[in-house]
């Protein structure tokens, strides 16, 4: 198995951007797991600008399949006094496969304080397991799945998380659960993520022993399209990511 840190360390920079090879054990069907693509994109974005403030938000479009050798390029959209917007595109022989806009922004201070996201009280898992051989989930360790009618809630961590940049680690793991709509038809239809909007609630989030509690739930799945919300808590029960994803349902 290939660690995320190993994959990122093997990426090569030249005058035209970055090149990397998607490991076969990180494929999700015929494309790279979206978290791995995002890890590469975020590393490329961070390397393109000096002294970036913390990552606050990401707008991701999963345009097409990514496999084999891929090329990643970063472009500054704007950098002001407080915020930097960096766009990253990843392409393969099949063409453009991924585009993301990362927003890095300094703490603005202020007196406003409003938070309705509940803390989590789920205990860390005692019994854990891995995904099947030949699938990207083999690189992850999962706790038991809590019962949900239209979604998933479970503890997840990377097999090898040590040494990863905190923001890269969170963005890698935050899309690790299957689309929530799988719960509605027991996986009878193929599904594919289309877009992903991610807000980081804390700069440089941390957790204990690599564990993150994840929940994804679909509010509406009609005519082949699902809209789902996603939340990520650290091991102390503090919400650190709030996200939304559009999913296509084929069949």
From TrEMBL:
<feature type="domain" description="Acyl-CoA thioesterase-like C-terminal">
    <location>
        <begin position="134"/>
        <end position="248"/>
    </location>
</feature>
<dbReference type="InterPro" id="IPR029069">
    <property type="entry name" value="HotDog_dom_sf"/>
</dbReference>
<protein>
    <submittedName>
        <fullName>Thioesterase-like superfamily protein</fullName>
    </submittedName>
</protein>
<dbReference type="InterPro" id="IPR042171">
    <property type="entry name" value="Acyl-CoA_hotdog"/>
</dbReference>
<dbReference type="InterPro" id="IPR049450">
    <property type="entry name" value="ACOT8-like_C"/>
</dbReference>
<dbReference type="Pfam" id="PF13622">
    <property type="entry name" value="4HBT_3"/>
</dbReference>
<dbReference type="Pfam" id="PF20789">
    <property type="entry name" value="4HBT_3C"/>
</dbReference>
<dbReference type="InterPro" id="IPR049449">
    <property type="entry name" value="TesB_ACOT8-like_N"/>
</dbReference>
<feature type="domain" description="Acyl-CoA thioesterase-like N-terminal HotDog">
    <location>
        <begin position="23"/>
        <end position="105"/>
    </location>
</feature>
